[in-house]
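Entry under discussion copied across for reference:
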Amino acid sequence: QQLHQAATQELNRHLAKNLVDDKRIVHDGSIDIKAMKKTFMEYMSINPSIEIYYLDLTGKILSYSADPGQVKRDTISLLPIRKFLEGKVMLPLLGDDPRSHHAQKTFSVTPLPDKITPEGYLYVVLRGEDLTQAEQAQSQQYILSLIAPGLLGSLSLGLLIGLFLFRRVSLRLRNLQEKVTAFAESGYQQPQLLQHRADRNPGDEITELDNRFNQMSQHIAGQWSALKQQDQLRREMIASISHDLRTPLASAQGYLETLSLKADTLTDKEKSQYLSIAIKQTRRLQTLIDQLFELVKLEARDTEITFEAFSILELVYDVVSKFSLKARQKNIQLIVDEHAQDIQVTADIGLIERVLDNLIDNALQYTPANGKIWLEVTAEENQKTRVSVNDQGKGIAHGERQLIFERFHRADNPQRSSTGHAGLGLAIVKKIIELHQQKIWVDSEPGQGSRFSFTLSAIK
C-alpha cells in the first residue's frame, strides 16, 4: 500500500501547481477567487477522486471543493506542507485529511500566488474520501465475489454433514426407542441390551442415555425377579405357616375330641396323658405364634435397641445355666469352653440373650444323645468379639448354609421334621444381629456338626 501511495504522490507531485497554471487561478500576481471557485466546481464533477482546498498561511481552510458539511477539520497541519515544498522528503508523505478527524492521505500543494510572496496554499488531497469509499465498496464486492462460492460450498457441505449427523442420531434414537418398546412388551422383565459398536462415541449423550437405560432395565428386571421370588417365598411361607399351625392345632383338637367323646371309657391315666399332650401342642402353637410376631416386628424395625456395656461371658453362663436342665434331660453335655474370654461388649443385652437362646435351642434339637454343645468367646481384630455355638449334629449341606437363616426354611435333616420346627428361630437371630450391624455365619460339614458364630462390638 505504501508503494502505491508513493507512486501516486510522485505522479501527481505538481498537480496543485498545474491547476493554478491551467485554470489561471493567479492573475497578474494576485489570486483570482472567481477562477478558484470555478475550478472547485469543475473538479467536483470531472475528477471526484481529488479534493481541493484553499488554505491561509496558518493552515486554516478558507474554501474547498467538497459538499457543505463534509469537511470536519478547520485547520490543516503545515508541517507536512513545508516538508513537501522543500522537496527533500521520501514519499509517500501524508497530510491531514480535512474530511476526517484523524485520517491522513497523500497530497499535492503549491503556494498562492507564488513562492516568494505567498498568501496561502492550494492543497489537493490525491485520494479523496469519495474515492476511498468507492474503493472500499468495490473491495467489498470483490471479496464477496471471491468468498461467495466458498461460502455456498461450505453451507452445502455443512448441510450434508448436518443431514448425515441427523440421520445417524435419529437412527440411534430409533434403535433406543425399539429397545424401550421391546422391554415394555416383555412386561419389563427382559432387558433388550444392544451390543456396543466400535464407532460409537462412548462419551456422547445418546450412548450415556443408552447405558442408563440398560442399567435401569436391568434394575427393573431384577426387581421383577425379586418380586417373583418374594411372591414364591410368600406362598411357601403361607404353606409353611399353615402346616406348622395346623399340626399342633390338629393334634390338640384330636386329643381333646377323644377326651370329650370317650370320657366315660378312658382311665384317669389316659385322660391325664391326653390332656398333657394337648397342652404341649397348644404351647408349641403359642411358641410358633410368638416367634412369628417377633420376626414381623424385627423385620418392620419396630424393635428399639438399647445399647449398654456388659460382660458377654457372664451372659453366656447365664443362658447355659437356663438350658442345663433341658440338656441333661436329653443326655447332652452343655458347657462353656474353658478358654472363653471375659470381654466387655456394647449391645442390647435382652436381644443378645434371645440370640443365644435360639442358637442353643437349635443346637439341642440337632445334637443326638451323648453329644456335646460348647460355647466360645474370642477377641477378634478391629474391636470385635466372636461368640460361637458348636454342636455335634449331622451338619448342614453346603447349599443350605446361606438359606438356613431364611424364615420358614427347612434344612434337609430328618431331625428337623420330627421337631416340627418352622425355621423361625434362626431367622430371628439373623434379624437381631443385622439390627446391631454385625455379622452372623455358619461353618458346617455334613456329618461333622455345625458352628454358628456372630460378632459384637467390644469396648476398648
